[in-house]
Amino acid sequence: MAFEEKNILNRLYIIAGCMFLFALAISIKLMNIQFADGEKYRELAKENTTKNFVIPANRGNVYADDGSLLATSVPKYDIRFDAVTVTSEDFKENLKPLSEGLSKMFGKPVSHYQNIFRKARADKNRYLLIVKNLGYSDYIRVKNLPLFRKGPYQGGIIVEQRTVREHPIGKIAQRTVGDEAFDRPGYYAVGLEGAFNDLLTGKEGHRLKQKIAKGQWKPVSDDNEIEPQDGFDIVSTINVNMQDIAHHALLKQLEYYEAEHGSVIVMEVATGEIKAVSNLGRTSDGTYYEKLNYAIGESHEPGSTFKVMAMMAALEDKVIDTSTVVDTGNGRKVFYGKAINDSHRGGYGKISAAKALEVSSNIGLATIIDDGYSKNPNKFINRLKSWHLTEKTGVAIKGEGQPMIPQPGDKKWSKNALPSLAYGYGLEITPLQTLTFYNAIANNGVMVKPRFIKEVRAWNEKVTIYDTKIINPKICSDETLGAIREIMKNTVIRGTGKSLYSPDFSMAGKTGTAQTEYWMPDWSSNRRYISSFAGFFPAENPKYSCIVIIHKPSTKKGFYGADVSGPVFKRIAQKIFTESRNIDSVEEIEKTDPIIEKDFEKYYSKLQQSSKTIPNVTGMAGMDAVSILENLGLRVQVVGNGTVSSQSIKSGENLKKGQLITLNLS
Predict the structure, then answer these.
(1) DSSP conformational letter for 203
(2) Which GO terms describe its cellular component (predicted)?
(3) How confident is the model at residue 580 (pLDDT cuts 50, 70, 90)?
(4) Fewest CB atoms within 10 A around its CB: which of 135, 178, 182, 465?
(5) Contact present, 113 and 73 (Cβ < 8 Å)
């Protein structure tokens, strides 16, 4: 018995000891949590109930050259209601006036708002949606309605802010301006938005919010912990009026010719500023929209517009002059086993080099270049390189196409490469790169870099100004320039562009009609072309250069550059320079107003009086009366506006320097 009692006591001691050790371990753990890891767990608890939310900064604005908005960030607000945090007294007192205010603003019945508020109160809804997508002014009005004006805790208002990118001029120039990626919110890669994203982005802010339910948060206070900083604004070179003209001129032609896609660029000759860019692609239902930036990104065989470069090289290297006779034969000539044809049936026979370019003879240009450079093709290629035709222009907008001009030693080089290059085949170049060269011809040989931005601003203060950058100060001699400009003028007057000629308006340029996808097996039964026109206007003193490219027009309606692309060029040029403008004129600027004359004479006569007494200024203009009295040494107090109806010191009284006189005006 004693043994059993002893065993029981031992067990009790062991249990008590274990309990003591367990209690000691808990105490140690609690002390460790409280003092060693306390901060860690407090932060963890805080994170589970409060959280810093990112507030995106407003992107900077994108402006046209005249200050018109092309893209801007607009704040939008969603208003929600926490029905739990509001006291019963405040809820009952403000329910009706709050509902009336919302009804007046948004048109729904007062009863609608009363019912949803009561239901939210009964359901203890802490995240009731009231209205979405409010502009700033409406948000302020809602925020100041009864109950809501008490703030998030007493009034239950929950405000959720976000920014939306809007384009005031719509979809025109969308690819040039750029847009948010549809699958990546907040990501900008194309156009001006992508090119200057770092400047436009700004710095994000933070706002502390408290968790009120599963997945639901509301701001802890009305203020942000870190205020967002807006991005810089950029002023582009785009002219809204020219952009509109280019867009609609291109669209009209694409629709008529049922073309696949097309592009237009308008550049200011002296500065290289891009004033308009339109890129339109065809949808499956036959409509057109800004699909891709073809003008900058699409390299393709240019066809006849490249003949200008070939001719200039030959003139500058003294291979020929404009009067050199070229035999084009009967319109068909074989070069190294490959036949080259002219579009003119029967050929042109023997013509001058200038005439060969005016009528766009493939054989003529191929003969000139092959005869002049076949023994030293690198001389021709090096001339093209000196004009930077083998390089990108380096514009800020991403995605510029890479030009490709083969040279001896390349896989694509053969004996046929040289004559092919002469009339625009066997190479690739973008519309912008072609226009940059044509612009240099118009700019007296000065090649300037195309640019899309004029300046960067912060709060309307200029931060950075982008000046004209010269790529090549002189691409060729004045003699070559004069010759090529004359040929380009004659191309419109009597050459391939003669259908575009107008005696009332001068322009110079070159047509282009290039076969495309001719390597496809179905080409003979389904011929595809690229129609183009590049040039400048006015011809004598060029202000703007322009290029129009239209891909795959319906051959049933036409495909030659003069017919398809040329009219777009002409329409743009005429609308920019020849449309009538409203002029406000000021007639008879020297005509005098008798009333003004009478007032002046009255003022002048009073001013001339050297008096020791107070003059009578009643009936005079207040401004004139003050001038007279102050010149006499009086202090003048004025009440009202207009003419003097009374004066505090009567006329005729002795004048004392420094005396105060009050004039009542009406």
Answers:
(1) B
(2) plasma membrane
(3) very low
(4) 182
(5) no
pLDDT (0 to 100) of residue 296: 95
Locate the domains of the chain by residue range: 1-50, 56-63+70-173+214-232, 242-266+277-433+487-584, 609-665
Largest CA distance in the chain: 142
Please give the share of the chain, as a percent, with pLDDT higher than 90: 59
pLDDT-based confidence at 468, cuts 50/70/90?
very high
The answer to whether 254 and 88 have CB atoms below 8 angstroms apart is no
Q: In what order do the strands lie in the sheet with 544-551?
A: 288-289, 274-282, 261-268, 544-551, 529-537, 508-515
Judged against a pLDDT cut of 80, whether residue 329 lies above it is answered with yes
- Provide the whole-model pTM: 0.72
Closest CA to 324 of 288, 350, 290, 286: 350
Of the two residues 222 and 21, the one the predictor is more confident about is 21
C-alpha span between 455 and 466 (Å, rounded): 6
| Count of positions (residues) in the chain | 666
CATH number belonging to domain 609-665: 3.30.10.20
DSSP track, 275-310: EEEEEEEE-TTS-EE--S-HHHH--B--GGGGHHHH
- Selected from 3.40.50.1110, 3.40.50.2000, 3.20.20.370, 3.40.710.10, the CATH number assigned to the domain covering 242-266+277-433+487-584 reads 3.40.710.10
